[in-house]
Amino acid sequence: MKRLILSAVIGLGLVSCTTQNTKKMTELPKDWKHTTNIYEVNVRQYTKEGTFRAFEKEMPRLKSMGVRTLWFMPVTPIAQENKKGSLGSPYAASDYTSINPEFGTLDDFKHMVNEAHRLGFKVIIDWVANHTGWDHVWTKTHPEFYLKDEDGSFHRASGMDDIIELDYKNQKMRLAMIDAMKYWVQETNIDGFRCDLASWVEVDFWQQARPEVEKIKPLFWLGEFDELESPEYGKVFDASYSWKWMHKSADYYKKNEPLQGLTDLLRQYSAIGDGSMRAWFTTNHDENSWNGTEYEKYAVITKPMAVFSATWNGVPLLYSGQELPNMKRLEFFEKDAIQWKNTYQMADFYKTLLNLKASNPALRGGDPAVTTYLLNTTAADKILAYLRKNGKDEVLVVLNMSKEPVDFKINDEHLSGSFRNVFDRTKRDFNESKDFYFKVSDFVVFEK
Predict the structure, then answer these.
(1) Which class for 120: exposed (0-12), middle (13-18), buried (19 or more C-beta within 10 A)?
(2) Which residues sit opposite 384 in a β-bridge?
(3) 8 A C-beta contact, residue 138 and residue 145
(4) Domain boundaries, the chain
(5) Which end of the chain, N or C, is less packed with Cβ atoms under 10 Å?
(6) Which pTM does this prediction carry?
(7) Is 322:288 a contact under the CB 8 Å cutoff?
(8) What CATH fold (topology level) applies to the domain 31-361?
């Protein structure tokens, strides 16, 4: 396997604040995006109650686990016309500036955001700009905001009967959308947006919206698009999805594809540059409900894949229940609460990884001072090994990506010196030996 040298670069200039209200709001430290992680909250399924107040009680536990940023799936009310199931999709909004009563009140949401900030979290909310539900308030007040079919009816979104698409050629609609986004920042003091199907919306809208909304305060922008397919969007967003990686890695395991396909894909992501970061994940709300749990996709390499997501260049993204671990697909349009237990088997595993990501300079996402070396091994078809380095700080990650035990050696001059295993705290001097024996599912993470 050829050695791959990957550099991390990011341009995260924060827009200065220009409104009088900004002084009362929670400011984002300039450096936080390099070290954060994101935990997606499915409010409906998170608790038996399915409310903001009920979830709020879980936040100290998530803080202890090392979670830094909370992403809430859409908090807006759900359209009733043509809705799916008995509860409908949170991604079919009926009003951009109201709260879904299923979750509580606006005051409940504000209380939760304030408590999250007190605990040290950042808070971002899902923003669904491409489409609305059929009985959104705009369908009556501004029907001209929507795309229309030849017969004058609202245009259904591709493959989804419960939503209709907005017309981004309409400048008044754009301004109304921006005003709605501003509302949530001004009224509730959130810290950013996860933008649903961001690449289904013209990129010049995001170019228009971001600086305008950030007149209130600097924000974090996570876009649902893959920058390999939509590079122009990466110039607007702080982070984007790694969809191709997720699908390719699932195919790698299920179809026994060569590991080199994954390393080649990492090379492609690296070639993008680092004006933005990638978000790495093993599951999310869409994947869990429609394509299966992370264990259905990855089976024995689930934990190695999770380690990768937390230690590669970018930002780790977790979904509700992964700390259990959650082994079932959650219903999307019905109430199907996560079956929490008194123990969280994966919590310490994630705590170690998330705290390492936050504290070790070698794991900073999108930092030009960090270099990543994909290391040569004697089992290039089974082992993924890489070293991330920032000055004197180094993190070594070695993952068994195969379905069998592996004897191997790291043959690479970039690895030398004494390291400590972050999980069991044992030390190892790689000047003496670089030999390994891995059982199925094994991984190691060392820091220098």
Answers:
(1) exposed
(2) 399
(3) yes
(4) 31-361
(5) N
(6) 0.93
(7) no
(8) TIM Barrel (3.20.20)
